[in-house]
Every structure is written in C-alpha cells, then in structure tokens.
Write a structure and sequence with these properties.
Domain RsmI HTH: 239-282
Shape: elongated
Main location: cytoplasm
Pfam family, one: RsmI_C
Oligomer: single chain
Radius of gyration: 25 Å
Helix content: 40-55%
Strand order of the largest sheet: 3-2-4-1-5
Distance between the termini: 79 Å
Subcellular location: Cytoplasm
Domain Tetrapyrrole methylase: 12-214
CATH class of the largest domain: Alpha Beta
Length: 286
C-alpha cells in the first residue's frame, strides 16, 4: 500500500472484516488497522493473516486477543489504553463485531467510561444473506443462533413464529437439517425459506424454496461451512368474516367504534385497519 494513511482518532474502533473474500475490506478499515495504537481481535491469527494480505505491518504495536473466554481479564487493558488517549481497533474473526460476535460488553464499558466508540462498517453475513435471499428486506429480525437443546429450540422458534418480518438465523452446519425439520413443524412446510452457505467464498451456495422443499433438498447432504438460514415473514392471519362480525357486535355494545375495532383486532390477531372498516360498516347499519 502506498501513500500516507490518516491516523485514527483516539477511541475504540470496531472494524468489520471480510466474511470470506479478503478484498471485501474497506479502505477506511485498512487505514484504522494500519494506524491504531493498539489492536485487539477475537482471533489474532485471522487478523494477522488479513493484515499480511493487505501489506499492513504490525510493527511494535500490541495485538491483544479478546474473546468470550478472556474478556474479563483483557477488557481492563483495553480501557487503560483508552484512558491514555490511544486509538484501539477491535475486529471479530469475520464480519461486524457485536453481531453474534464479542464486543458488546467492551462497547458498553467504554461508553460508560466516556470514551468515543466508533464503527468502521463493512461486511456482514446478515446483510449479505438478505441481499441474495429474494425474501422481503423492508423489515427483518436477526435472531442469532437457535438453542441446541430440543425443547429450548422449539420454544425459541415458537416465540418468533408470528413476527411479521424476515427471520435471519445463524446455524452450525451440523444442525442445519435438524433446524429445517423443526421449522417445518413449527411454521409449516409451505413457508418460504433460504439456506445460504459460504457467502462470498469460492463455494458460495444459495438454496431457495419452501421449508418442505429445503428439507428434501438438503436431507442427504453433508453440509460444510458457514450457514445463514432465512425464513419468510409470517403471513397475516385470514379473517373469518362471521367471527369478526360477531366479535364486533359484542364489542360495540360497550365500546366506541374505534375502541371496539382495536379490541377485536388485538384479540383475533388481525390488522386493525381492516377490522376498523368492518366496524364502521356495522355501526352505520345500526
């Protein structure tokens, strides 16, 4: 790399790193990695390799390992560097720190201590998967890794079942088939889903279809690599006109039209606007 790089300002810089293709890193991220006073990483070997690829020398700067198993011990060292007015760059193993990766407690502690916390945004498996999924992106929920235990996993999926947003899950390749089977039971085989594997890497693969189709397509395969599973949003519940009318007539006996509509919509899990229109018709007819 040539040219004079700008010196990062004092503070804690969370640096997004590639999830596969090394060239996906941003120029600003490279500037921060080249100029920060202290470097910290979830996996120091991965960060050193990335820096070597892009010609960034570590020099005599400290490189600290910071992950879930040593965070309590290393965090004070990072905070001490910030107290001295130094710039600290932290990178998770791949992708954006804090998104299913370490960094939350570090960020919160630094903020509480009055230090600047900055983001050098970039690669994210969540956004990459959404981009290629073909599922709605106007509203989505990143739910992280499902619990491994069967009972907890089923309860966890049940809590997400009716959320009107595309669900984004991370999963171990060893449990993808089991997750798809649980999704078929919890959400039905007709709900659309996508399995993304090895995004941005040589063997990137995106499999789309209904949950039932994905169960069949991946049943006998040995799944390897990083996996993101996306599930289409819950479909709005279809209203039973007879049930809605009966509920509205009862509610209108002691509520205003607006309040009756809100009560019935909440009780039956229906869009309030549609129920309100039905309530107006009933009120006009009385």
């Amino acid at each position: 790399m040539t040219g004079q790089r700008p010196k990062p300002e004092p503070g804690l810089h969370f640096v997004a790193t590639p999830i596969g293709a090394a060239r996906d890193i941003t120029l600003r991220a490279l500037d921060i990695l080249a100029g920060a006073d202290v470097l910290a990483a979830e996996d120091t070997r991965t960060l050193r390799h990335l820096m070597d690829i892009h010609g960034i020398a570590l020099g005599d700067r400290p490189l600290l390992a910071y992950h879930d198993h040593n965070a309590g011990r290393v965090r004070p060292r990072i905070l001490a560097a910030l107290e001295e007015g130094k710039s600290v760059a932290y990178a998770s193993e791949a992708g954006t720190p804090l998104v299913a990766d370490p960094g939350f407690q570090l960020a919160r502690t630094a903020i509480e201590a009055g230090h600047r916390v900055l983001s050098a945004p970039g690669p994210s498996a969540v956004l990459a998967a959404l981009t290629v999924s073909g599922l709605p992106t106007d509203r989505f929920l990143f739910a992280g890794f499902p619990p491994a235990a069967g009972g907890q996993r089923k309860a966890w999926l049940a809590d997400l079942a009716e959320i009107p947003a595309t669900l984004v899950l991370y999963e171990s390749p060893k449990r993808v088939q089991k997750l798809l089977g649980d999704l078929a039971v919890a959400y039905g085989e007709d709900r659309r889903a996508v399995v993304c594997r090895e995004l941005t890497k040589k063997f990137e693969e995106v499999t789309r279809g209904t949950i039932g189709e994905l169960v069949g397509a991946l049943a006998d395969r040995a799944i390897k690599g990083e996996v993101v599973v996306l599930v289409d949003r819950a479909m709005a519940k279809l209203a039973d006109p007879v049930e809605v009318e009966a509920a509205l007539k009862e509610a209108l006996k002691c509520h205003s039209t607006r309040d009756a509509a809100s009560l019935v919509a909440e009780t039956l899990g229906l869009p309030r606007r549609e129920v309100y229109q039905s309530a107006l018709k009933l009120a006009a007819g009385n």
